[in-house]
Amino acid sequence: MSKSDGILDLTIKKFWFEQIKSGAKKTEYRNYATWKNKLCPGNGYKLVRFRMGQLTRKTDPNKTMLFEIKSIEIINGKDTPLKIDDKVFAINLGERIL
Prior knowledge:
Layout: E1 7-12, H1 14-22, E2 27-31, H2 32-39, E3 47-52, E4 64-76, E5 87-96
Parallel strand pairs: 1-3
Antiparallel strand pairs: 2-5, 3-4, 4-5
């Protein structure tokens, strides 16, 4: 699945995966300069799939999660885990699907 399916695939570290899984983290942040071509308005993403670490061809269901995307905003990253005093994308998560 990919952009044509409306799914944004993101690889994240185990710590952040567990934070999202537990519900403690409800927003994923990405650097604006790196992600602007993929995440700018009109991107068509409705869902985000998180993958813990790099996976092989067989996807381990314990290492993936699928969430609705409530919204994608551009904010200052100074007070985010990225600690960047510049623009970042804030991907606000909705309900977990898988």
